Amino acid sequence: MALQRLKILISNDDGYRAEGLLALRSALAAIADVEVVAPEHNNSAKSNALTLNAPLYVHQADHGCRYINGTPADCVHIALTGLLGYRPDLVVSGINNGANMGDDTLYSGTVGAAMEGFLFGVPSIAFSLVDKGWAHLSAAASTAADLVQQMHAQNLLGARPWLLNVNIPNREVDAMKPARLCRLGRRHAAEPVIEQVNPRGETMYWIGAAGEAMDDGEGTDFHATALGHVAITPLRVDLTDHDHLGYWSQTLSRLRGRERP
After folding, report:
1. Which DSSP letter does residue 191 get?
2. Which of 27, 107, 138, 206 has the most neighbouring CB atoms within 10 Å?
């Protein structure tokens, strides 16, 4: 029995003209009906931000993609709540120009777009290239499409929602090592803020670069990609510290015991 053709929504955080987005659209179009709704401008590090204090506009680009003057999450939110007019089988974000590993996933607009799809109950994947510069981009797009096709063959799309963060090494397909399931690593604190003075004599600040990997041992996304493997990390939205609920319950009881009657 032939599989029904997939319907995929694609977004990103690098903007609607980014090479990674267009390469991913081309690769996925061979196996699915795809629609792109992406930000007008680069929205790196916008995480899950939604625009609530300004109007949003949808435009059609000359290459067929639609773009919005908002964040990555805005794009997916608007697409899924009325713009598309149907529910896609999969939301895909990327391919990002640079890795989203470890703590970066908390800030990533690429992950934020995929997470918005997950919050609406649609299976979602965030794809990123490990190194910036688009080296071996076609291989990364092919790898992404192959992963989606395999998941479709295993009936993993259209079922319960899940969220995956996938980082692809900058290698040709035949040099790519098998995918590994990984946990997120950790980074050191960011580099110091960069302070400068503008032509009017006012002090301005630039956020410093991300810190070096602190936890990059075996089993992490940092370790896997350093060895040439595609790193796949399942993510969840629940930020509850379940392991320490008991501790905080006892602490709260002690605090209540000190309250005045």
Report:
1. P
2. 27
Domain ranges within the chain, ordered by starting residue: 6-185+213-257
* Dihedral sign of CA atoms 252, 258, 259, 261 in order: positive
Q: Residue 28 belongs to what H/E stretch?
A: helix 19-29
Q: Decide if 37 contacts 93 (C-beta within 8 A).
A: no
Query: From first to last of its 261 residues, what are the pLDDT tens digits of the chain?
Result: 456 789 999 999 999 999 999 999 999 999 999 999 999 999 999 999 999 999 999 999 999 999 999 999 999 999 999 999 999 999 999 999 999 999 899 999 999 999 999 999 999 999 999 999 999 999 999 999 999 999 999 989 877 899 999 999 999 999 999 999 999 999 888 889 999 999 999 999 998 888 788 778 899 999 999 999 999 999 999 999 999 999 999 999 888 776 555
Task: Tally the C-alpha atoms within 13 A of residue 248's C-alpha that lie toward its C-beta.
Answer: 6
Contact 5, 28 (CB under 8 A): no
Q: Judge contact between 9 and 65, C-beta under 8 A.
A: no
Please tell me the number of Cα atoms within 13 Å of 198 on its side-chain side: 6
User: What is the CATH class of 6-185+213-257?
Assistant: alpha beta
CA-wise closest residue to 147 among 123, 111, 112, 117: 123
